Model the fold of this input.
Amino acid sequence: MNAAAAATDDIAIAFSGITKRFPGVVANDGISLAFRRGEVHALLGENGAGKSTLIGIMSGMLAPDEGRIEVDGRATRLSSPADALRLGIGTVFQHMMLVPGLTVLENLMLGAPWWRLRSRSRALARFRELAGLLSVDPDPDAPVGRLSPGEQQQVEIMRALWHGGRVLILDEPTSMLTPKGVAELGAVVRRLRDHGVAVVFVTHKLREAHALADRISVLRRGRVVGALGPEQLRAMGEAEVLDAVVAMMFGRTERADALGEVLAGGVGAGPALRPVDRTRPPRLVLSGVSTVGARGECALAGVSLKVWPGEVLGIAGVDGNGQKHLAEVLAGQRPVSAGSIMLDGREIAALGVPARRALGVRYVTDERLDEGIAGEHPVAVNLVLKEIGRPPLWRAGIARWGAINAHARDLICAHDVRTPSERTPIAWLSGGNIQKVLLARELSPDATLVVLGKPTHGLDLQTTRLARERIRNGAGARDAALVVISNELEELLETCHRIAVLDRGTIRGIVDNRPDAERAVGRLMTGIAHAA
Amino acid sequence: MSAAELVTGAVRILLPVLLALVAGGLVLLAMGADPLAYYGYVVERGLLSRTGLEASVTRMAPLLLIAAGLIVAFRAGLWNLGVDGQFLLAAVVVAALAPALAPAVPHWLMVPVCFAVAFAVGAVWSVIPAFLKAVHGINEIIATLMMSFLGVGLANILIKLVFFDPATTVPQTATLAVEDRLARLGATTVHWGVLLGVAAVLAVHWLMGHTALGLRLQIVGSSPRAAIHAGINLRRLTFVAFALGAGLAGVGGAADVMGVHGTVQADWNPAYGILVIPLVFLARFNGWGVIAFVFGFAVLMIGGESAARRVGVPTFFVLVLVALLLLFLAVVEYLDHERRRRRAA
Done:
């Protein structure tokens, strides 16, 4: 495949001069790009660079204000997602676009013409084919709402591939996957490319872009600021490509150095972790903890763990292997069916969320919008969501709004939350600011146990770096036991003293964070090894 | 709140009312009646004449108590559409209890006992839908509607088989003596149940805005998953919200019986609950707004009865106006939603 010689009829979809304005911001400013058949084209850029808008236009969700779109050389208007799908442009969005109440198979069968009979056997055959292609195994009859985010994304990828396709758009597709899953996705993407699909790959992660892409385009502030073609990519080494792209993304080189490290995934010296005194008694002791799961959910089966004061324990594993249950069991949101949870020598398994919170248990959920906040309610209420009715902000069950709002203003200031006021409904805030509100609510010096679910998922690079630094420093607590649940191994390697691998509801093994930890965790995750 | 928001708020509330009145006028024209005459009579009979105004204010009592209960349920995200069954069942029990108690216990004791029993009866009638919703996640709209039919039916059975007054030919409960009914306010015919209604609405308004219970109920209603995350007891609050809502509807029934009718006849069902629902929505669950709309609606009900006779249209034309109000409420809501969406995009 020689893209240099590519004739124009090799182009699956071409943009010229695409401009899209939103109130106060030009999201896309005269973008011209061509996506070729049989080529993986990575779109890189920081949060707010205009990638999501461009994808929205490509998938028919947004109409450009100016510019021209050509599909197979013919000027086309993508006036609805149905138009885009009809033209074989399938998109996997970063946020879920599935119907939670329908099963996996029903979701995949949506969007067929109304006159065509729905054939379960045909759909099931296609499902098996794609499941084989992706090397995944979701239950086709499980309601999508019961699947973990990672499994939901697998279904999304299936749906985008469902109608074959001319263009496959992947928006941050690897954020939910393990290294093995990323490799598998990579294999799928290459296979699709070799079938002549134009793959558009949007990502933060430079390494992945470099590993997968035949062509890289970099966006900054709504414009295309740089591109690397196939020959250049082949000619340059990985380090050179990363340097070049970081320079394009950030413009200035000095800032690029600090961020490039994050982008490239923790290159350089290992992080300085605080020492842990294991002669003290452990803060958190789980013994034989099990839960009951609904259909399609993975429950815990006899999980035992210890976490010492000041220690950060990472939980690695593919989404949907009991992470959610583990977090909820620790927070008190979910009852245990067996086993015990001791915090500072005290049995807490029977206590609910408020009682555990009083003991210093904190839980920063990964489902920020779905369960972390009450969206219609003001920021001030969300900051005290887990304290409703408790003195001093409530007296005899009566709210002291003056005190509640003052408390909110203090936290907003201390955590640099960008909000018009403490009375603004929290759903109006950006994702990063919502995360800041959650952290402000959960992190305090008197915490004894802090559970963090995917603490940096969806955050931009600068914020990610700061968040990880903060976790390394004990998440604002003096001596808390920290449990960080993440499917980004690199994140755990940067922040944790030990890493436990959770697989099908059981702990496969716990690895000390030494230089060979990545391989050891990988072996546990892939089932090659069992830790002693 | 900025001036612009206030104006939009007022438009969102008043526009459906205005459109309903205009469309209702067109319907009247089509029926060969003079709309201006109809509305003129409504105002004259329901608002401007002394007896009409007193009747309108009296009518507010059950409506306000029902509305107070609906505010709690709706803000907790629970569609209690079974108000009529809860109302009627409590009314029948009180209609049987009050005349029996009146000779035996002092008035100051009889009235609170009857109100308490009415609250309990209404609340009990909400336990089944609350249980189904809280424990099994079964939609409360269907459950409460079903329970409402059952409640209305049971009320009739009670009147005809158990509580009937042998002295009358029409099946009805024993009649509460006029001197044992709720006291009048000054020289008017208005009983103090109206004040109870106003107090209930304002108390609920305060409860939702200023107490931990109210805030928890709101969070359960708007974001149930966040409620679980925050350790709010969703199950218990579902029972509480249902019981408060249905109990207040029961108190409304007691107020209507002890304040106005003194008895309940078989097959009597004013169906206030269904009429109050659009008013509560129109007022966006705001207590002061609810009081204003209930007053306006009471005037329409009272004035509409005689106005209909005068201009020769059926008395249930008031229901046509309610239906139009609901329709335009939905249309205006939709347009406003679209406008916001466009502005956000």
The longest strand of chain A covers residues 11-22. The radius of gyration of chain A is 24 Å. The first helix of chain A runs from residue 51 to 58.
